[in-house]
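step=encode ok
step=design start
structure_in=
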């Protein structure tokens, strides 16, 4: 299995302690590190649970730290950080490694280089929701929140709001009747539940529904109501049909 794709972008630390970007097309996949293989500059190997880039020619010299005289830890830069500097990408990885080590230090047992700081290689931990993955919801947090995930959710929480709620009738000439009203709406985020107030009364809708048609014989003013919630904050909006005299 290939260690990376040509389209991948990485960050590493050179021998001058400068953090630089490197494209997948500029590095060479050499597979798992082996003490019997001679490596050249820009060769990439997998060693234990991380990727490392050769900073120069070496033989039978395994990586020993984030950056030693032969190797630099290679950090994959995600799509969301492609516009950031290499320094920012690497600092993000190292910050994540510290959090990961605080929560999942046990993963370091036998999985990291002996006599090296375990957190050095923690940014190679698989982040995700699988049983072997690490995520912010698992990281303890001191204070009002039990985990880093809960704290981040609170910091970046955006209350629910209805960004639009319309009907296709709006104004009707008094004396006419309406047989159907098409409603459409949108939120600023996903909701967990929503209720529409129609002529027939409150209607509970699935969380993904964004259109509704009410049929009948309607001849008087009516205001439709909509309330959606993300499980924490409800948001409401209304839209009306109005019967008016025709202007001559």
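sequence_out=
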């Amino acid at each position: 299995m290939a260690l990376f794709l040509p389209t991948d972008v990485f960050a590493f630390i050179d021998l001058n302690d400068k953090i630089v970007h490197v494209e997948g097309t500029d590095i060479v996949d050499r597979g798992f590190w082996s003490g019997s293989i001679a490596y050249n500059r820009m060769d990439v190997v997998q060693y234990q649970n991380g990727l490392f880039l050769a900073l120069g020619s070496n033989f039978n010299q395994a990586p020993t730290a984030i950056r030693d005289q032969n190797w630099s830890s290679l950090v994959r830069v995600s799509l969301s950080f492609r516009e950031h500097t290499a320094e920012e990408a690497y600092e993000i990885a190292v910050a994540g490694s510290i959090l990961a080590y605080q929560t999942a230090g046990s993963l370091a047992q036998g999985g990291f280089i002996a006599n090296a700081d375990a957190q050095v290689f923690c940014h190679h931990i698989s982040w995700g929701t699988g049983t072997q993955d690490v995520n912010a919801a698992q990281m303890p947090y001191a204070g009002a929140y039990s985990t880093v995930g809960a704290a981040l959710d609170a910091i970046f929480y955006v209350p629910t709001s209805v960004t639009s709620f319309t009907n296709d009738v709006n104004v009707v000439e008094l004396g006419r009747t309406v047989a159907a009203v098409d409603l459409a709406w949108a939120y600023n985020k996903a909701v967990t539940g929503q209720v529409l107030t129609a002529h027939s009364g409150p209607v509970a809708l699935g969380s993904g529904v964004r259109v509704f048609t009410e049929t009948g014989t309607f001849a008087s003013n009516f205001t439709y109501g909509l309330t959606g919630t993300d499980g924490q904050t409800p948001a409401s909006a209304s839209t009306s049909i109005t019967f008016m005299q025709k202007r001559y």
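step=design ok
step=annotate ok -> The radius of gyration is 29 Å.
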